[in-house]
Amino acid sequence: MRLIKPSRLDRAHKQRDRQIAKRAQKRHKERMLRYADSLVREIVYKRDHGRCRACGKSVKLHGHLLDVMHAHHVIYRSAQGSDAPSNRLSTCASCHEAEHQGLLWMKGQPNSVMTFTRVDANGRILNTWESRV
Ligand SMILES: [Zn+2]
Q: 0.90 cut: is pTM over it?
């Protein structure tokens, strides 16, 4: 029996098929991660009654979505904070931004008691309050 070497065209097709399969796997993984994150967000928003835990603002009015609710990581992902609901907190966009600017400190356990401290640009404490679920 004589072996036939695959032609360049066959190799190119096989390489292309592998690339397509690899891209499809990557897209599937990204979709699954987005889906998992959407489920976590849903749990977090329900636990927090659809309100920002810091200011109490609701993002819905008469069932209509007015704004985007964020699921803030109390321990940042960059510090290996978990994506689980126990590390996530519903926040409105402005409170979330204030936290990341260092103007609103968020400490505690999202599943129970959180303490919020608003500070000015010089780090002076303006007020402190708690939020429980
Ligand atoms: Zn807020």
A: no
